[in-house]
# Entry
Amino acid sequence: MRLKFSLLFVIGFGLYSMNAQSQSNRFGMKSGIAISDFTQQETTLGDNTIQWKGSVSYQTGFFYNKRVAESALSIQTELDYKELRTAFDLREVDNRITTATDVIYSIRNVGWSVLPRIDLFSGKTLNPNFMIGPQVDFSLSSDVLIKSNTTGSAPLLGDARFGGSTSKYNEKVKFGYVMAGGVEIKTKPVIVTIEGRYSSLFTKTFNSEVEELPLNNDTYLLKLVENMREQYYSVLIGFNFYF
# Structure
């Protein structure tokens, strides 16, 4: 009887240890929307000052979470891809254009971050958590595009899409930080995560070489101040897998 009890205890403790160990390591993926704009922005087109407006695009990536033993703290490493956009309506600066004609600035980054994370109720079905930590973004490409879907009423543009790459003007490596908060919903075999986050980059978007960005040859020239920096708000849904 005592031997049977001992065997049951050993088996039970082993299963518990395996489960605890598996839950200490998690791998997952997250995707969602990113609403981006720029701080310290001053752009001119001719004699007009441009106010870029925030625009919606997307963010997606993977993460690995390692829990510190017997603690609410864990360390989350993330790798993600996002396309950030901002835009203005060309009608604001050219009265010859009478229908919506957008000038869109897009930049595509790969980001890497290491985020200390605090879980409030790590053993519960609903687990609120928050993170803050450093981030580095690597610029892949960027471009400015003029987009018009009309004909006739936009004499300079017609039914046109034109612009060009601005990648050579971008800083290739940019540093910043991330603040995030969300909630985990424990289900089997995965954990669902709903998260909101704010990301801000300290490094200037453009390098010291930029003065003008040509559009449609020399029809339009955007003059940009070099202090422009990227920031974005994200809403992400993720899935965690134990291993």
Summary: The first strand starts at residue 25 and ends at 39. The longest helix spans residues 2-24. The chain is about 10% helix and 60% strand. Confidence is low (pLDDT under 50) at residues 1-22, 151-161.
